[in-house]
Structures are given as structure tokens and as C-alpha cells.
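User: Predict the structure for this protein chain, please.
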Amino acid sequence: MTIHSKKVRDAARGQPCTLQIVGVCSGDWSTTVLAHLPDESHGIARKSDDISGCFACDACHSVIDGRANWPEREKEYRDWYLRRAQTRTLRGLFALGILVIKGGCLMRPEHVAANELIDIARTGDRSAYKAQLAAIEGKFSPAIFQSIKSQAAMQYRMGKRRTAGTPVGGQTGSRARLTTHMQG
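Assistant: Here is the predicted structure, written as C-alpha cells:
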């Protein structure tokens, strides 16, 4: 079974290149097409499925098709570039409404910002936390910003307690060791 879609192929027109190979990408989105990536569905004179593709400018497309060489410094990252491009393309197709995932939805910008801040807060790195907090301040309404800040502050305090060895919830004894082990 092969999957082909004119809508997927047409969606590539004018889109940013999702490969963006360092030292290769032209940044000319007028040349962007759906480039097929190697996978188990391709063979001699047979392209991969359209879901195994990415939006690629002409320059990057030439590299993955073998018409041009990979830059020496980027060769070892080939698989990373291909996976990143495919993921970016699938997200783009989802955002355009071409790819539909049952129960799927796009995260609102404030949720993305909150998740990033919470991830930093969990590390207990106060300087990185403050820098990220300053970076997002002013991007959201005061109420939303305060909500993001309070959620992240709670996660920061939890991360700080874990790194200090204080059991979560103030428990002591064997129950505290079990709780800390399960959460850490």
C-alpha cells in the first residue's frame, strides 16, 4: 500500500524549507516542494509515500536526492535532519488542516510557553528560569502571565526540594524514601 495525496504535495508550495541544512538551504521558499525521504516503501524508480516526505527548497532537495553532496560538517547529522524535517512537515500539515489526527489539537502559545518554563523550573536552574521568565513577560496578558509564572514557580520549588534531598510532602522514614524514589 502506498499513500499519495495531491493536497499534501500542493501544500508544500511557498512553505518554508523544513530541512534547512546548514550551508545548503537557500531560504528561497518559492522553490519548496514535497521531497520524499528514504523509507521502506521506496525502491528503484519508486518514490516513498507522501507521509514520508518533507517540505524542501531546491538546494536541500538536491542534497537528499543525491544530486548535490552533503556538507562535510553535516553528514553525520543526516538522520537527524531527515527526522526533524519530517516532523516539522507533519506539524505543518496538521496546522494547515490537511493532516487530521483524531482527538488532536494545536497547543495555544501560552501552554507552550508554560511547558518550556516548567521544564526549566524542574531543573532547579534559577538563572535559566529567570531568563526564560523575562523572555516571555509581555507576550501574554498579565493574568495569563501570572498563571504561567505560578505554575512554574511551584515546579521550581518542587525541583529545588528534590535536589536538596527533602522528601516531597514533608514525609519521613521509609514512606518518604519510597515517595522520593517513585517521583525522582
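The longest strand covers residues 33-36.
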